[in-house]
Amino acid sequence: MRFQRILRFEFWPFWFFYFPAYFNWAILAIKARYTTYFTATNPLMNNSGALNTSKFSYLSKLPKAWVPSTLLVEKGVSASALEQQLEENQYRFPLVLKPDNGERGKGIHLVYTLEELTAALANSKHQHLLLQHYCDYPHEVALLYVRYPMEKKGRITSITTKDFCSLQGDGVHTWEELLQAEIRVSHRWEEIKAREKLPWGAIAEKGELHLVEPIGSHNLGTQFNNGNQLNSLELSKQLDAWADQLPGFYYGRFDVKYQNWEALLQGENFQLMEINGVNAEPTHIYDPSYSILQAYRDIFSHMRIIYEISEQNRRLGISPKRLKPFLIELIQTALR
Question: Are residues 105 and 114 in contact, defined by beta-carbon separation less than 8 angstroms?
Answer without folding.
Answer: no
